[in-house]
Amino acid sequence: MKSEQDLLQDQTPPEFSRLIAIDRVGRDPLVETIEANEAERAALAQRFDLISIEFLTARVTLRRLRANTVIHMTADYRAQCEQKSVVSLEAVTAVISDSCSCDFVITTEEELQRGGTSEINFDVLDEDTELLTGSEVDIGEVIAQYFFLSLPPYPRLPGEEIPG
To answer: Is residue 46 part of a domain?
Structure first.
């Protein structure tokens, strides 16, 4: 069985990585505008089994909450891509314009090993919540994941129907 460290080393680096040092994030909003370049869009298209991604942009806002132990992220993102129709396999254009929000609970590896996160009540948090053990948050990867969740699950051309 592989150790956690081996699993982390086996992971492919994110295709659309935009690292923000958590030290830059304070109570005042930190606003970043990010855009995937051609190589990043091609790699994301391959990862998400898309024909292509014409553009992917986001305006991301980060700020600290709850005695500086949580980084709250909100974002508005836009994208245009081509997917394969589930009926004909022809190209279908999808235009995405959406928003997302999530919270990153700042902790350390030592706290995790001691069970220090047991005091965090994830049920009371309104947003998607992730533990953050490093010194950076990857806002590009977060946007890539939310973009994928926004894609039409059964793309098809106008007039095409899924056989019943």
So the answer is: yes
- The partner residues of 65 in beta bridges, in order of sequence, read 70
pLDDT the model gives residue 40: 98
In a domain, 48, yes or no: yes
The answer as to whether 79 is a domain residue is yes
Q: How confident is the model at residue 121 (pLDDT cuts 50, 70, 90)?
A: low
**Segments forming the whole domain that contains residue 49:** 4-65+72-103+135-150
Whether residue 157 is predicted with pLDDT greater than 60 in this model: the reply is: yes
- Alpha carbons 91 and 73: distance in angstroms, whole number: 33
Residue 53: inside a domain: yes
- Residue 120: pLDDT band (50, 70, 90) is low
Torsion of CA 92, 93, 97, 103, to 10 degrees: 50
